[in-house]
Amino acid sequence: MVEQFLDARSLSDKLDILRMMREDVSMKDLSICAASLDIIPEAEREEELYDRIRDVLETKKRYELERR
What total number of domains does the chain contain? Predict the structure, then answer.
């Protein structure tokens, strides 16, 4: 699943893949996803890092749409 996240072209696709990964994602996988988005994984728990990645993707998506 991480490979799909990294290969996804759009932020919407990344969000969809992240949501699919939620139930059985490891901290290592989340750290890889975070690094691909230039997020420093400071969270101690998987849930915190997942939420941070989701928030960053949603924010980027919002601003990307506003620029069009």
Answer: 1
CA distance 5 to 19: 10
Output the six-digit token pair for 38. 């230039």
- Residue 55: Cβ-neighbour burial (10 angstroms; 0-12, 13-18, 19+): exposed
> pLDDT digit string (tens) for 1-35?
899 999 999 999 999 999 999 999 999 999 999 99
User: Strand ranges (DSSP E) for 1-68?
Assistant: none
pTM of the model: 0.88
Domain around 22: 2-67
Q: Indicate the burial class of 63 (C-beta count within 10 angstroms; 0-12, 13-18, 19 or more).
A: exposed
